[in-house]
Amino acid sequence: MKRISLFSLIFIAGCSTTPVHSDSAHEVPSNRYYQPEELRQHSEAKGKVVIKRDRWVMGSPCYMTIFIDGERIAQLAPGEKLTFYPNPGEYIFGSRPNDPCTGSQQEIEANVKAGKLLTYRIGYGGQADSFINRTTD
């Protein structure tokens, strides 16, 4: 019984992730960017959004797919970030782990304002379920 409990504890702890600072996260490579070109173009009339993915201590066999209003825009590996410039307005940002990773699609509302930065963090908690949250960095 102690072996099973120890294994469970190691498995659950191994699924949690470590935050990455926006400055040290790598921008997602262009071959995993699916967003329209207009979202990549900076303008003072647009907002700026950074979605970054935590590092995974044990390595990760999968990508996390990122969505805006249900449309796939990118796939992030651990330690990567996605920077884009949407027009002001209300959006729903989402993330979903790709196979073979577990976790359901997570979504969060966003109110994008011209000239303002919104930063989001994607990762896994101790119960092996993914999350997307606002963060200050």
UniProtKB/TrEMBL annotation:
Annotated protein name in UniProt: Lipoprotein
PROSITE patterns for this protein: PROKAR_LIPOPROTEIN
